[in-house]
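Quick log. Single chain, no ligands specified.
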Amino acid sequence: MSSNQQISDYVYYYPQVLDSNICNNIVNYFDKNAKWTTSTFSTAYKNTGTSQVIMDEYWIRSKDEHHEHLKTGFEQAVNDYISVYDKIKIQAYTQFRINRYGAGGFMNTHIDNIHYSHGQQQGYPHLTSLIFLNDSYDGGEFVVAEKSFNGEAGAAVVFPASFMYPHKVNVVRNGERWSCAAWLR
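-> predicted structure:
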């Protein structure tokens, strides 16, 4: 990092990697068809349960409907990011995780140092990518490196998955906040 660069300079926001109509279809489909589980919060040493997060999650499989739409959106954002930072070599994406936060939902500050968390493949991720699937909620801002995103439906954020990028989701005050996350190793 040069003396002119800030940590936040490595957090990229992509306004529209997916069409908002596709996002709406994704939300409607998974709202009706996903087998939701309550998300838990893990550290390098233990699973701390639900005290640090209130969110439902569903891990998308490659055969699930809309997987290809999400893959295309992630690839558009990530490929642009690694074209700028060409020392990053992506070997694999994790499964995609749909996140559904109801009113009162949140995720406390954490880092994505997930060597083997939530059943993911082994290997520390290089990048985190998040696609916002809706924008019809209040609160629920995504905060990373002193940047705060309300994220319109179809927008993506990409940033390094390291100790230097703690991030969180603020409490959702009204509505449901939907997003999809992927980690790249």
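The chain has a mean pLDDT of 90.
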